[in-house]
Design a protein that fits this description.
- The protein has 208 residues and is mostly helical.
- It is built from 8 helices and no strands.
- The longest helix is centred in the last third of the chain and has 30 residues.
- The protein is globular, with a radius of gyration of 18 Å.
Length: 208
Amino acid sequence: MLASVFNDFLIFLSVVVAILFVARFRYKTPAYKTFSVYLVFIAIIQLLLLIHAHYGTNNLFLFPYYFIGQYICMSLFYYFLLRKNWLLWLIPFVLGSLLIQYLWLPETVKDFNPFGLSVTQSLIVIYALLYYYKSLEGDADFLFVNAGVLMYFMASILFFSTTDWIQNLELPFLIRAIFNSINDVLYFIFLTLILIEWFKNFRRKKMV
């Protein structure tokens, strides 16, 4: 019961964060706008997951949309921060590889795909590391967001890539629930860092 309430709170928080960033959408940089689109996309996915959970229907078909949309948004976000053209060139290559996988294994379209998620999120972590090293050279934006990406996405890779292995072990429900709770807590920290970023750097400040 408590886990369900916390999960609903995370969905609510995702929507709030998206609204806060979108409220300043027209005044900000391409990186800010791209990240705002990412937050809206994730909020929509979260709401759809909630709806399917409410009706007890299978929501795994949303999984490809989730990690592919996330990869595109975050790749563009880090392109605007790093200004490395190879980030753009890599997008069609990765999407083409995933398309080949789905054509070869069509059952993965409506099922969990740890390979696709691990590849796309690993690339995002690499971009975040590159931006972290770039930020050491001087002023940089989105440092709280970047820290959240490194923390949450690295943990998410480990969590989702071992999901099938954990299920095959047939661990007790309590152990599996603990793993899910850890992922939820890390996601909460990620959202909190995004909120800190917005409050410190992007909220509307009183004009002097």
